[in-house]
Design brief:
Blueprint: H1 14-39, H2 46-49, E1 51-55, E2 89-93, H3 98-103, H4 115-120
Length: about 120
């Protein structure tokens, strides 16, 4: 049996492949995050503004709301420093009622939850 391989100087290096993969993870996580913010129900804006992204362990902070007359606009996607391929990307919302919104149909604005719909809406690369 004869095996033939070719080596091309045009092939990406491992470092370049890692950078491409990291960009892909960042893009998909960003799409999910932005969709979760967009789909979030709004009363005071606290739920919408409490979306967080972290690696390997969830963040535990929340954003307090203002009131229905002046709601918070939402959370901005910021990719935290320190991501390495193999890390677990965690998108979470730590409002005490987040599970009720996601799994119990607690909001008439989003009776089917938020994060599961956000994940389903992602356009994979």
């Amino acid at each position: 049996m004869i095996y033939v391989t070719t080596i091309s100087s045009d092939w990406p290096t491992k470092k370049q492949l890692d950078e491409i993969a990291e960009e892909g993870v960042k893009e998909i996580a960003g799409q999910i995050f932005r969709a979760a913010v967009r789909l979030s129900p709004v009363y005071s804006g606290a739920f919408r503004a409490s979306w967080r992204i972290a690696f390997n362990e969830p963040r535990e902070d929340v954003t307090n709301g203002r009131g229905p007359e002046n709601p918070i606009r939402g959370a901005a996607f910021r990719w935290p420093a320190g991501f390495k391929l193999g890390d677990t990307v965690i998108i979470s919302n730590n409002q005490p009622y987040a599970e009720l919104i996601e799994y119990a149909g607690w909001s008439n604005q989003t009776p089917y939850g938020v994060l599961r719909l956000a994940i389903a809406s992602v356009q994979y690369l």
